[in-house]
């Protein structure tokens, strides 16, 4: 069953995934806190991303940069001068709104790339109204810089101004030379980073989708400037199907088309093998962690949306209940950032290319940049389902992939008398899996509680455990049960978490 974003926020709070930040003081717009289950789920998502993108790849390394750094980084990157959204305020109720959002919502037009003047004209001509009070008395549009300012050191003042990082990516560029010199990397290679980013968003909305404090998982992938289109990995991804929404399809009001990556390349829809490679790699990461592929598409930026330094950009989009929205941008940034930092720092950013025996400033051919909180929402939406229980009541089953489920195994004594044995079983598994011990309530209720938070397996200790040394394992998604010997428990659970079918783990229990 599909739920909307507000219902998801309610569910997340009720079950301990996410709470409004500082709620006892009325909350704080754009800020949320992850509760016990949410913190674990988010950590699992980030660990999986790091393993898939950094640890499992020979051409990737990772860094962990500081949140506050020399403000010159943000001058060089262009964030101090130009990292803004166009804002418009209502003269009647003082509500601040993002001009692109109200224009898109009320007029149904794409508004990315429009200037303040364009917005002023549209808002006046088409009678766009305040989203809060409905008034058409809106002020003039102005650009609002999204960087959060702070002061470093004991004296406040212009000289002490620094910024909370607006993205993690700039730290990759600022550390580029250090990383290359200490990691013996050869082109092509990527540098990854995950961590907090901060944007003083004009209108945070849609729960975790648009926050003022959020987390990113970003990669800058560097290639030789003369080999910008030579991706050696195209063969690995050529048969993977993507729902493609090219700039041409958007301009001619056509529907997106499902096609293999190889077809998109042959037809010249995707012009660079690296882009196809990264778009597939990213979609696959989601799919392998249990997201539904049908809810993903790749959308090319139209010319009017593209940054001036970018020759092509594709977004990975997800079908949220409030529409198709960006999860991740995969942009071609050429050598724009390294050149900017070279200019401002006066430090050489070129590297020696062994093959051509020349110094080159590498190109960033792709910048897969993903918001953790948006990924968190994807996994929650795609996992959320309901079924009828034995009494015909509708119950929630959160079908999270076992690899990221916050609780992997719950150990339940059938009745209180069996607690000693259950504790013994718990002790044998708790070091290997994320486990939860639950003794309170009927076993049916405990199963239901575990289904709601996405625990893939419950291990029940019953009288047969005492008499015959066997345990009952119950599967969240099917409610089926199998019997397993105590001494085999860890091995069977390992098999399950490695992908083995639940039914193959032991002897089926007939209902
Ligand atoms: P949007 O158009 O949605 O504001 P953006 O194009 O400004 O996003 P990028 O600067 O490309 O976003 O940031 C990379 C990724 O970081 C985004 O694709 C998104 O997943 C995440 N992200 C950006 N801003 C936010 C935010 N305010 N809250 C949560 N995640 C965000």
How would you describe this protein?
- The chain is of the alpha+beta class.
- The protein folds into 2 domains: 5-61 and 166-379, Bira Bifunctional Protein, Domain 2 (BirA Bifunctional Protein, domain 2, 2-Layer Sandwich); 407-508, Rossmann fold (3-Layer(aba) Sandwich), CATH 3.40.50.800.
- It has 18 helices and 27 strands.
- Strands 3, 9, 10, 11, 12, 13, 14, 15, 18 and 19 form a 10-stranded mixed sheet that branches. A 6-stranded mixed sheet has the order 23-22-24-25-26-27, sandwiched between helices.
- The radius of gyration is 26 Å and the shape is globular.
- The relative contact order is 0.10.
- The model has no long low-confidence stretch (mean pLDDT 95).
Largest sheet: 10 strands, mixed
Helix content: 25-40%
State the distance separating the first and last CA atoms: 27 Å
Number of domains: 2
Rg calculated over all Cα atoms: 26 Å
Bound molecules: adenosine-5'-triphosphate
Shape: globular
Number of strands: 27
CATH homolog superfamily of the largest domain = Bira Bifunctional Protein, Domain 2
CATH topology of the largest domain: BirA Bifunctional Protein, domain 2
Q: What is the top-level CATH class of the largest domain? A: Alpha Beta
Query: Low-confidence stretches at least 5 residues in length (pLDDT < 50)?
Result: none
Q: Output the structural class.
A: alpha+beta
Q: What percent of residues are in strands?
A: 25-35%
The CATH architecture category of the largest domain equals 2-Layer Sandwich
Number of helices: 18
What average pLDDT do the residues reach? 95
């Amino acid at each position: 069953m599909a739920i909307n974003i507000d219902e998801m926020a309610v569910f997340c709070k009720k079950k301990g995934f996410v709470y409004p930040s500082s709620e006892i003081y009325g909350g704080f717009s754009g800020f949320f806190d992850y509760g016990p289950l949410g913190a674990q789920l988010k950590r699992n998502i980030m660990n999986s991303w790091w393993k898939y993108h950094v640890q499992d790849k020979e051409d990737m390394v990772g860094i962990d940069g500081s949140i506050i750094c020399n403000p010159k980084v943000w001058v060089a990157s262009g964030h101090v001068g130009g990292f803004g959204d166009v804002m418009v305020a209502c003269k009647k109720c003082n509500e601040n709104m993002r001009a692109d959002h109200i224009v898109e919502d009320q007029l149904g037009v794409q508004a990315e790339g429009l200037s303040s003047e364009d917005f002023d004209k549209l808002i006046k001509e088409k009678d766009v109204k305040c989203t809060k009070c409905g008034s058409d008395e809106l002020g003039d549009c102005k650009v609002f810089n999204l960087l959060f300012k702070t002061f470093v050191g004991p004296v406040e003042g212009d000289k002490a101004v620094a910024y909370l990082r607006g993205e993690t990516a700039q730290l990759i560029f600022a550390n580029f030379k250090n990383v290359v010199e200490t990691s013996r990397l050869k082109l092509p290679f990527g540098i990854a980073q995950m961590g907090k980013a901060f944007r003083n968003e004009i209108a945070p909305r849609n729960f975790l989708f648009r926050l003022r404090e959020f987390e990113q998982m970003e990669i800058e992938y560097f290639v030789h400037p003369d080999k910008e289109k030579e991706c050696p990995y195209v063969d690995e991804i050529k048969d993977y199907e993507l729902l493609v929404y090219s700039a041409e399809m958007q301009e001619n009001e056509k529907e997106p088309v499902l096609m293999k990556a190889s077809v998109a390349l042959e037809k010249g829809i995707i012009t660079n093998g690296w882009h196809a490679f990264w778009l597939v790699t990213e979609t696959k990461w989601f799919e392998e962690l249990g997201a539904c592929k049908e809810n993903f598409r790749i959308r090319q930026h139209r010319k009017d949306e593209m940054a001036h330094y970018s020759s092509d950009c594709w977004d990975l989009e997800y079908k949220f209940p409030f529409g198709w929205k960006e999860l991740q941008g995969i942009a071609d940034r050429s050598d724009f950032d390294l050149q900017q930092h070279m200019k401002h720092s006066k430090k050489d950013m070129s590297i020696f290319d062994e093959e051509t025996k020349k110094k080159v400033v590498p190109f960033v051919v792709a910048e897969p940049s993903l918001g953790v909180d948006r990924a968190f929402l994807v996994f929650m939406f795609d996992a959320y389902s309901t079924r009828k229980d034995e009494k015909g009541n509708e119950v929630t089953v959160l079908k999270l992939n076992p690899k990221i489920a916050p609780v992997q195994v719950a150990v339940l004594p059938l009745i209180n008398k069996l607690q000693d044995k259950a504790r013994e079983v718990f002790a044998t598994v708790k070091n290997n899996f994320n486990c939860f011990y639950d003794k309170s309530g009927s076993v049916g209720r405990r199963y239901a509680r575990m289904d709601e938070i996405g625990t893939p397996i419950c291990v029940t200790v019953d009288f047969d455990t005492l008499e015959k040394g066997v345990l009952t394992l119950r599967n969240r998604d099917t409610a089926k049960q199998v019997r397993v010997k105590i001494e085999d428990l860890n091995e069977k659970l390992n098999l399950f978490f490695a992908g083995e079918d639940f039914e193959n783990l032991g002897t089926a229990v007939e209902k």
